[in-house]
Design brief:
With 358 residues, this protein is of the alpha/beta class. It is 47% helix and 16% strand.
Length: 358
């Protein structure tokens, strides 16, 4: 009898173990409740990739929001296989340290300006010349076209996702500038090649990135700034200037990179890389549109502050163009001394700008 009871107990234990294993197997293959039908037949997911993204723009800036939306779109299209943690406002790496931070792996992805490390990117510096950019969309598309055609080796230590560039850089000051003579001796905030632009126009360039410009204007460290209209609202600089001089004929831009650590890029599977490439290509247009919208908002904000908008006279415009021509000539000479075919590159850039004027 005892032997029978023991056999019965053992049989029940085996039966319960079989039922438990069957349920576990069913749970492992069953679709998650609420999952899309297309997800059920998808290829098995790999290990989740978690990335850090350093953006120098403050979190309220339209370009920071565009960068965050890009990250969310990557996460969405990879169905959660990629998680991107965004660090805005230079909280992970400062504007000037952003590129090297990506190379060294401090951040996996970074967005900042080529101009903040002057001399580091001599081929890409051409984009920032006073070429008379008509809009942020034209500048952004031209910058990407230029990079695609030239493929400079100076960016080989990262994977370039895309580039964007602001609308025409104009002169914003605390006192009116109607003529070149009015600018003589004025301390003007600038960056990269725009510093040479200020010098050519007779001003005194003071190099600094955007994050420090508001306070510098407020305290009188500088008397003006060369920047796109968007900075008047996006960086609140319309509160600390009184005049904008419309010098679009010499409008420069500042090219901004979105790059990824090369080892992190190479470690990702091809299908995930394709998502990054596809979304990045789409966001060239997005950033260009955001720049133009931000310029319009900056102009409106400037008007709300009752700041004056000064148009150069018909005689004065050509004087400004003639004054900055040596900046382009000097760039070509300096770049060619480094073995760069700068004249050819400038021709490519000019063609790209003309092609992308809408």
């Amino acid at each position: 009898m005892k032997r029978f009871n023991c056999s019965l107990v053992c049989g029940l234990l085996v039966l319960m173990l079989c039922i438990s294993c069957t349920r576990q197997a069913e749970e492992e293959v069953a679709p998650v409740e609420g999952a899309a039908v297309s997800d059920v037949g998808a290829a098995p997911r790999g290990e989740m990739v978690e990335l850090s993204y350093s953006i120098f723009f403050p979190p309220t800036h339209a370009q920071c929001k565009a960068g965050e939306n890009w990250a969310h779109e990557i996460e969405k299209r990879t169905q959660g296989q990629v998680k991107i943690n965004v660090f805005p406002g230079g909280t992970l790496t400062s504007a000037g340290e952003c590129y090297d931070g990506v190379v060294r792996g401090i951040s996996d992805i970074g967005m900042s300006c080529f101009a903040y490390t002057r001399g580091r990117f001599p081929v890409m510096e051409a984009v920032d010349l006073p070429m008379g950019y008509p809009s942020g969309m034209a500048a952004t598309r031209a910058a990407n076209d230029y990079y695609a055609q030239v493929k400079p080796g100076e960016l080989d230590d990262v994977h370039v996702l895309y580039i964007h560039a602001h609308g025409p850089g104009l002169l914003h000051t605390k006192k009116p500038v109607n003529r070149l003579e009015d600018l003589s001796g004025m301390k003007i905030r600038s960056t990269g090649l725009s510093a040479k632009l200020v010098e050519a126009l007779g001003g005194v360039p003071v190099a600094m990135p955007q994050p420090g410009t508001y306070e510098a204007l407020q305290k009188g460290v500088v008397e003006g700034t060369f920047a796109p209209m968007e900075t008047l609202k996006g960086w609140k600089q319309g509160e600390v200037i009184d005049y904008t001089t419309d010098c679009q004929g010499i409008g420069y831009t500042t090219a901004m990179f979105v790059v990824m650590n090369k080892d992190k890029w190479n470690a990702m599977p091809a299908d995930i890389q394709k998502v990054f490439t596809d979304v990045s290509t789409e966001y060239i247009r997005v950033h260009g549109q955001v720049w133009d919208e931000a310029d319009a908002e900056g102009k409106a904000f400037n008007e709300e502050q009752q700041n004056a908008f000064i148009a150069l006279s018909e005689d004065e415009g050509p004087r400004w163009k003639a004054a900055v021509k040596p900046v382009i000539d000097d760039y070509i000479a300096a770049a060619e001394a480094q073995g760069i075919d700068a004249a050819k590159n400038i021709a490519i850039l000019q063609s790209s700008i003309e092609k992308n004027i809408e």
